[in-house]
Amino acid sequence: MPAVTLSSSPALVRPRPTPRPSLLRTWLQRIRTRRALAALHPDQARDAGLEPWDLRAEIGKPFWRA
Question: Crossing angle of helices 52-60/23-38, nearest 10°?
Answer without folding.
Answer: 140
